[in-house]
# Entry
Amino acid sequence: MVDTQNELSALAYPNPARDQMTIEFMLNGYNSETILEVLDLNGQRVAVLYNAEAEGDVPYRATLDALGMAPGVYFYQLITNRGVLTSKFTILK
# Structure
């Protein structure tokens, strides 16, 4: 689990993934407009998995369909009004 100053937490599994990955996240103690996006190594957005208001202390789960994605290293980025959490994951074929 990734934790940024105890305000954001996220976990991606399985990592590495083949055809599907789950990303769980939670905002600790606050509500915020929230975006969960997937970026390639060039920083290009390849997917938006969540784009809405998220309530604090409520667990959220998003699923990434990786079947059409090229194998390699990617990043997921959780963006809120209090900060950004970025973490790396790998897609295998």
Observations:
- The mean pLDDT is 93.
- Strands lie at 2-4, 8-13, 20-27, 32-39, 45-54, 60-65, 72-80, 83-91.
- The chain has one domain: 2-91.
- The longest strand covers residues 45-54.
